[in-house]
Every structure is written in structure tokens, then in C-alpha cells.
Design a protein that fits this description.
Rossmann fold, single chain, 10% strand, alpha/beta, globular, 8 helices
């Protein structure tokens, strides 16, 4: 029988959630679905929750209301997940969720924060397939990716409990690596896998 996780001196016990952060194209949604299936967990995508809360697509929020309003929605849906005390869930987040310090604290309240990375060339190749990314509607999308990544990389690193490079891993390999890391870090923590 597995013993429950016992946190050190008054620290809150981590919830059995995997919280995926990283730049667009790092694999948060696609790898997250595989991870959720392997664990038998539901998956929640904060971008989908924003769309539901706003009643419009993300590209429309950016176009009609601006990025700050989108970020406000993002913070609200993250707070709602914490308030609902979700557990046993894979949570995929938007690429800019770490831009607000209060969001980083909420990510850690939710669970094990995994940063998915990839080299810049791989990220650009992946995001180039999706023409609906509002932050890439610029004269030079490649330069935009480079600038955004440079600005966000330290925020991602600071927010992460674990970093996993997905550049040369299959989605299944990435999911397996996250499960192995969680088992190694939390030997008494049993989120159902």
C-alpha cells in the first residue's frame, strides 16, 4: 500500500496535477493529451477555458480587446482552477501564462510545473503550421518568435519544477519522461499512476 505524501513542516501537499508551461509549439497540448491518457486523468487547456469565459476565440480577443484583456482572462481561469481545487488533472497553459507573477504562484498551487522546451528552429517550424496564432501576425514572424522566446525563457525557467526538451522526443517519450520524473521526485506521492 502506498503511503500518502507528507510535506515538510506546514508546506501544502502538492496536488496530483501536471501543469504544463512553455512557449507556443513546445507540445503542451499534444503531449498533454498523451500524458492525460496514460495517467487516466482529464486534461484542461487554459486557452480553451479563456475562449469559453470570453465567448470568443483568442484571435478575436486579441483583435478586439487586446492582449491585456486576454491576459486578464488567463489569470481568472487559472484562479478558478485553484479555487475549484482540481486534482488528478493535466493542465495545459498558454505560452504567456508566466508573464504575470501572480500566475506563477497559482501554477505552483495547482501542482507539478513542467516546462516543455524545444530549440528555436523546431519551435518556429511547429508554430508556422498554425496561422491562427495572434502574436505571430507580424511582418517577420521568425523574428517575433526569437524576441518572445528570449523574453520569456527566464520566466519559464524560474517557474518550472522540471524542464523537458521536446526537440527530439516523440510525444509518448515526453509523457513517459514526465511520469518518471514525478515518480522520482515524489516517491510517496501517488496521483494514480
Amino acid at each position: 500500500m502506498t503511503e500518502p505524501f507528507h510535506p515538510a513542516d506546514n508546506a501544502p501537499a502538492p496536488r496530483p496535477n501536471f501543469v504544463l508551461i512553455g512557449f507556443m509549439g513546445s507540445g503542451k497540448s499534444s503531449i498533454g493529451r498523451i500524458l492525460a491518457t496514460k495517467l487516466g486523468f482529464p486534461m484542461v487547456d487554459t486557452d480553451a477555458l479563456v475562449v469559453e469565459a470570453a465567448g470568443m476565440q483568442i484571435t478575436d480577443i486579441f483583435a478586439w480587446k487586446g492582449e491585456e484583456v486576454f491576459r486578464d482572462y488567463e489569470s481568472k481561469v487559472l484562479r478558478a482552477l485553484v479555487d475549484r481545487a482540481v486534482h488528478g488533472t493535466v493542465i495545459s497553459t498558454g505560452g504567456g501564462i508566466v508573464l504575470r507573477p501572480q500566475n506563477v504562484a497559482l501554477l505552483h498551487e495547482l501542482g507539478f510545473v513542467v516546462l516543455l522546451t524545444a530549440n528555436e528552429d523546431v519551435l518556429f517550424e511547429r508554430v508556422s503550421r498554425n496561422k491562427t496564432r495572434p502574436l505571430l501576425h507580424t511582418p517577420n514572424p521568425r523574428e517575433t518568435v526569437s524576441q518572445l522566446l528570449a523574453g520569456r525563457a527566464p520566466l519559464y525557467t524560474a517557474a518550472a519544477d522540471f524542464t523537458l526538451d521536446t526537440s527530439a522526443r516523440s510525444h509518448t517519450q515526453a509523457a513517459d519522461a514526465m511520469i518518471a520524473e514525478a515518480r522520482g521526485r515524489f516517491p510517496l506521492w501517488n496521483p494514480g499512476f
